[in-house]
Design a protein that fits this description.
The structure holds 3 protein chains of 3 kinds.
Chain A (H helix, E strand, L loop, with lengths): L5 H15 L4 H18 L12 H26 L11 E6 L5 H13 L3 E6 L5 E6 L5 H20 L1
Antiparallel strand pairs in A: 1-3, 2-3
Chain B lengths: L1 H28 L3 H26 L3 H26 L6
Chain C lengths: L7 H27 L3 H4 L3 H24 L6 H34 L2
Helix pairs in contact in C: 1-3, 3-4
The chains are: A mainly alpha, B mainly alpha, C mainly alpha.
Chain lengths: ~160, ~90, ~110
C-alpha cells in the first residue's frame, strides 16, 4: 500500500485558495479536486515521502530558528557597518560531520543555514556525511559544529527520523 | 499617525531603491561572473519588495501578483545562470 | 479606501516594520557592495532575503487585511517561495564559485 501525501494535498489546496482569493464552497471543491489529482499523478515523479513524526517539535524548531535569524541579522549588520573594528573578523570554511540521513531533514537544514545570515551551505559530500559551511565570522570551528549539532540536528532527527 | 505611515512608506521605498543601486553597482563592478549572478539575485528581491511598497501606497493588490511572478522567474533565472557557471550548460543531456 | 485611513493601532506597527525592513535590506545590499571577497559577499544579501522581506511581507499582510476587513494572508506565498528557493540558489552559486576558482588556479599553475 502506497502512502498518500496528505500534507502535500492540503498544502496545494491552501495555496489554490490563497491565490484565487475566495473560499466559496465551489472554489474549495475545485482546489481540492485539482490538488488530489496532481498529487496522485505526480507521485510517480518523486517517490520519496517525508515522515513527520512530531509536529510539536517542528514548532519548537521554528521558534528557535526565528530567534537565531534575529540574532544573526544583528551580528551581520554590525559586521557590515564595520562596528567590529577592534577585532578582525575573518571568514572561513568549516567541515561538519552530520548524523542526519533523511533527505527532507537535510533540505530543512539547508533552508535554516541559508536563511540565517552569516552561514552559507557550501558543499555536502556525496555520501551525505560531511557538510561544508562557509561562515562569515569564524571564531571557533568547534563551537560552530556543536551549535549545528545540538541546536538543529537533534531536533531535526526527532522530527523526521 | 497617517503622517508616520506615509513617511515610513517613502523611507522604505528610498531604502529599497538605494539597495537596488548598490546591487546594480556590484553587477557592473563584478569582478567575476558569480558576483554578477549574486547581484542579480539581490536585485530581483529588492525589486519585488519595491513592488509590494507600491501596492501598499496605491492600496491595490495587483502588484502582489507581479511580485509573486518576479519571485518565481527571478529564481528560475538565477538557477539557470548559476547552473551555467557550474557546468557550462543549463540542461544536461 | 486608501491605506492611510486605517486605524492608528494598525498603522504604527506597519510603519515600524517598514522602516526596520527597509534599513535591513539596505544594509544587506550595502554589504554586498562593501565586502572584499566573493564568499564574504554571499552573506549580507541574505539579511534582506530573510528579515527584510519578512518585515515588509508582514506589513503588507496587515495593510491588506485592514483594507479588506478580513484576514488576507496571500503574502505568505511569497515568503514560502523565498525560503524554499534561496538555499538552492546559494548552494549552486557556492558550488559554481568553488569550481570556477579551482579551474582558474589550475590554468594559472598547470
Amino acid at each position: 500500500m502506497k502512502r498518500i501525501a496528505w500534507l502535500l494535498m492540503i498544502g496545494l489546496t491552501l495555496m489554490w485558495l490563497l491565490l484565487t482569493g475566495s473560499a466559496s464552497p465551489g472554489n474549495v471543491l475545485l482546489g481540492a479536486a485539482l490538488s488530489v489529482a496532481m498529487t496522485l499523478w505526480f507521485s510517480a515523479v518523486r517517490p520519496l515521502h517525508p515522515h513527520l513524526r512530531r509536529p510539536r517539535a517542528a514548532l519548537r524548531l521554528f521558534w528557535r530558528v526565528a530567534a537565531d535569524v534575529l540574532r544573526s541579522n544583528y551580528a551581520v549588520a554590525r559586521i557590515v557597518l564595520g562596528l567590529t573594528a577592534k577585532r578582525n573578523v575573518h571568514a572561513g570554511f568549516v567541515d561538519i560531520p552530520l548524523a542526519v540521513r533523511d533527505p527532507h531533514a537535510l533540505a530543512t537544514l539547508a533552508a535554516i543555514v541559508t536563511s540565517t545570515p552569516g552561514t552559507v551551505w557550501a558543499n555536502l559530500s556525496p555520501d551525505n556525511r560531511v557538510l561544508t559551511l562557509h561562515v562569515l565570522d569564524l571564531r571557533d570551528p568547534q563551537h560552530m559544529r556543536d551549535t549545528i549539532k545540538h541546536r538543529y540536528e537533534d531536533l531535526l532527527r526527532e522530527i523526521f527520523e | 499617525m497617517s503622517a508616520l505611515f506615509n513617511f515610513a512608506l517613502a523611507f522604505a521605498q528610498l531604502c529599497f531603491i538605494l539597495a537596488m543601486c548598490c546591487a546594480a553597482a556590484r553587477m557592473m563592478i563584478g569582478p567575476r561572473a558569480q558576483d554578477r549572478v549574486l547581484a542579480l539575485d539581490t536585485l530581483y528581491i529588492n525589486g519585488l519588495l519595491t513592488l509590494l511598497m507600491l501596492g501598499m501606497r496605491t492600496s491595490t493588490t495587483i502588484y502582489f501578483d507581479i511580485a509573486l511572478l518576479i519571485a518565481l522567474f527571478g529564481f528560475v533565472g538565477s538557477i539557470a545562470l548559476a547552473k551555467f557557471l557550474l557546468r557550462g550548460e543549463v540542461v544536461e543531456p | 479606501m486608501s491605506a492611510d485611513m486605517l486605524p492608528p493601532w494598525l498603522l504604527l506597527p506597519v510603519s515600524l516594520l517598514l522602516i526596520f525592513g527597509g534599513l535591513l535590506t539596505l544594509l544587506g545590499s550595502l554589504g554586498l557592495l562593501r565586502m572584499k571577497t566573493f564568499y564574504q559577499r554571499m552573506h549580507p544579501p541574505s539579511m534582506g532575503n530573510t528579515m527584510g522581506a519578512g518585515c515588509v511581507l508582514i506589513a503588507s499582510m496587515l495593510v491588506s487585511s485592514g483594507l479588506a476587513g478580513r484576514p488576507v494572508v496571500h503574502e505568505v506565498l511569497i515568503a514560502v517561495f523565498i525560503v524554499t528557493t534561496s538555499p538552492i540558489t546559494a548552494m549552486l552559486l557556492m558550488g559554481a564559485a568553488v569550481h570556477r576558482e579551482a579551474s582558474q588556479r589550475e590554468k594559472r599553475e598547470p
